[in-house]
Amino acid sequence: MYLKRLEISGFKSFATPLKIDLDPGVTAIVGPNGSGKSNVSDGVRWVLGEQSAKQLRGSKMEDIIFAGSESRKKVNLAEVTLVLDNEDGHMSSEYVEISMTRRLFRTGESEYYLNGTACRRKDLLDLLIDSGLGKEAYSMIGQGEVEKILSSKPEERRVMFEDAAGVLKYKSRKQQSEKK
Ligand code: ATP
Ligand code: MG
């Protein structure tokens, strides 16, 4: 499984639709300061279910919608789509290509789509946690987080190992069924 394509529109500094095709292996994004490199990874993090505006380097969620510039008017909708290649069947889905979309309107309304069909946030998160790609998973490591891992307490480190070993999803299911 790998991230095959990223489509960003109206998200942070990306006023007009942008498509990025990616190949398996390592991809590096280079560019001058402030050109939007971190905004690309914020977009990925957002689709993976991030609910904290602070984690996305804003103060409120609306801050992720393109706010306008000298030459362009602000927009009212932010949309990011991740397309994952699932040829190897890593994701528990019959699709060989899985697209996940998150949209946010300035009115505060939000929408989620799985392969083009509207779904609940939970549907996306369930699929992600099964594949080890959830937002709490160490599939995304932000600036400063390596240091955090090294200086973490043993019990925090245990959570990371459980996550890496794929135990976390069973723990989360156990907690959910205990709640019911
Ligand atoms: P560095 O090399 O310094 O880490 P970077 O390439 O990672 O830079 P980003 O942090 O991704 O840059 O982009 C910052 C830019 O995104 C800033 O110019 C900021 O004004 C712009 N930006 C962020 N949110 C919005 C928004 N909602 N609307 C318009 N522009 C935005
Ligand atoms: Mg940056």
UniProtKB/TrEMBL annotation:
Protein residues bound to ATP: P32, N33, G34, S35, G36, K37, S38, N39
**Where does the record say this protein resides?**
Cytoplasm
Q: State the domain notes.
A: Contains large globular domains required for ATP hydrolysis at each terminus and a third globular domain forming a flexible hinge near the middle of the molecule. These domains are separated by coiled-coil structures.
Q: Which family does it belong to?
A: Belongs to the SMC family.
Parent-protein start and end of this portion: 1 to 180 of 1194
Q: What does this protein do?
A: Required for chromosome condensation and partitioning.
Q: What is this protein called?
A: Chromosome partition protein Smc
Subunit note: Homodimer.
